[in-house]
# Entry
Amino acid sequence: MRRQYPPLVAESLLEEEREPVRPRPDARRSGRARGGGPIAPPAGAEPEIESLLDGDPDPARRAPGAGGILVAAIALVLGAALVGLSVFALHHADPQQGPGAAAPAPYAAASQAAPPAEAVEHDAEAITALPDPGWARETASRTGIPERGLLAYAGAALQLAREQPGCGLGWNTLAGIGWVESHHGTIDGGVVDQDGYARPGIVGVPLDGDGVAHIPDSDGGEFDGDPVHDRAVGPMQFIPATWALYGADGNGDGMRDPQQIDDAALAAARYLCEVGQDLSVEQNWLAAIGAYNAPVEYAIEVSTAATHYADLAG
# Structure
């Protein structure tokens, strides 16, 4: 059965002449993160992923086009070769400027696994107990990712390695999303405290159809404070309707809070693995990222950030 993609992916990737739904350009300047976030798959959707490519699978032999045509979009996102200055920029970008400073050709980022802690109970309630703490300290120093956020990303990836070993989700993919969505919860001067909560809470723009998707309120304003339209919330920018389906308890406190980075990272990990199944396959990785946030530019930003972090981590 053909995969029924979530609405944003169907509009921007599978219809050749449609412009992708884009976040409002003033989202960050307004003090709120971008209004994207994962969209819940429709009821009854099959979990398998079909290839998004038709014809010649080699992106280097696919002619570029204009106007957002599917062939050009997929060729860009799945192009595996980095050349000239792009390679230099990726491997030598200043980490203080963030991974988005580099502009290489986009591609599906390879996953990097975090080493597990030596002695951890198999049923540990908090995902932050799963990564090796020494690795987390060293990698946080090398990459510039706040250690609290890195523990959440790595812990979520390790938890999914237990739950769904065939997924192949790397901590760096989650870190790439966390960077693009909210700068790891630090957007506009915010912080993630030692308990993992975004302070202040992160709330995106209203999804009212004005340059963004149109998503009516689904939670009575419980998570986003908006009783009219949904807004993406938390460091991983979940839409309330999707959080209702995928919300997770990553810190073992019995609560599911999208503003808590362990909860949000674990929910994002499960979402990506459900959509992508095996993220070591390029088109599956792309489909999972596209389900999270549809514009092709988003996949470019995430793949650039994820690869940048993996390179810095060594």
Notes: The radius of gyration is 18 Å. The first strand starts at residue 191 and ends at 192. Confidence is low (pLDDT under 50) at residues 1-35, 41-97. The chain is about 35% helix and 0% strand.
